[in-house]
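Entry: Aminomethyltransferase family protein
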Amino acid sequence: MRPALLSVAERKAAQGHIHKIKFDTPFQPRLDALMQTHEWYDWAGYRAPHSLWSEELEYFAIRSQSALFDISPMVKYRIEGPDAEAFCNRLTLRDVTKLKPGRVHYTAWCDDSGHVLDDGTLFRLTETRFRLCCQERHLPWLLDGAFGFNVTICEETEEVSGLALQGPTTCALLKAAGFDGIETLKPFDIRDFAHQDGTVTVSRTGFTGDLGYELFIDTRRALSLWDRLWDAGGPYGLRAIGYAALNTARIEAGLIVANADFITAETALRADRARLPDEIGLDWMVDLKKGPFNGRRAIEAARRDGKARFVLVGLEIEGNVPADQAIVYHRKKREVGLVTAAIWSPTAKRNIALATLERPYGDSILNDLWVEIYALRELQYTRLMKRAKVVPKPFVKLARRTQTPPGDF
């Protein structure tokens, strides 16, 4: 059978699709106008800023004023129908029956072996409608799991755009932008506010450990929402930021990232790379008082038999050289783990890190831990062995994150 011949226009269209490496979010025109560093990275196929003007100053915009970050590439699923609550409760680790309309909670979900497939936020918009936001794409798996439930599941990543507004002046900024009553929103509350001829959904959530909000809107109205915030933001020090600044803030807050601090079950190429919730600090999510959920039997068996092999810990490391991707040793000899994320914390004024360690190290053995850092100095790497100690997370805890109403900074 001869292949069908394409017209010139069809060939050009096909070539354009092949050569388009990254997708643009609806906020791309505003990001392009502000871009000074030309540092972009690939976020789920989207062209996203690593930094826009100054990685260091963008971080301080989070901690001292207001920072705006485009979260549109975050994968979003709409789950709705009479059995939406039952499906979400069967899917995730936490008890969804306790999640009331107008609330959101952080959760995770596992495969049948109890290994974490992803973590994310579950928004309960109404009694029968939820929005699941996460890092990875899971639609085929979600649809398979919905067999027998009266629910409709669809991805709405492109239809719903998102902005994270983070920092101490964000509540005052939103009030100035006409979001009346925003100061009454408690942590993990959701509320709809009028915008143009529609609405914008605002949640008091974020990934920085600071006072902050996330705003979700129909993509057709995305740019007008950006402009509304930008026009009101001048007196409150509003700045657009990239991922580098956000990453510094989330490490200080002790928050983990899929496929950075742990490997998701669907992504892992080796069987020993997948992780149980108890191995990545998500054991507090597992609600054994509720009914069946994916991976329950495996998680219970691992706890009963002591088969959790790893633990994710916070480390404080001597010196000021970040230990990113450093090997962790016990008594400078035995390799016991790996640093997954590390920074010099501008707020805590400490050299901090997240690390995954093999039990019992980091669990019952906490002393005599060391990290091996290779520091580039004058075109030559210098090997540094620095002492590390296990410390509680978060490394930075700010009262304003949960204060209601927030202060007018």
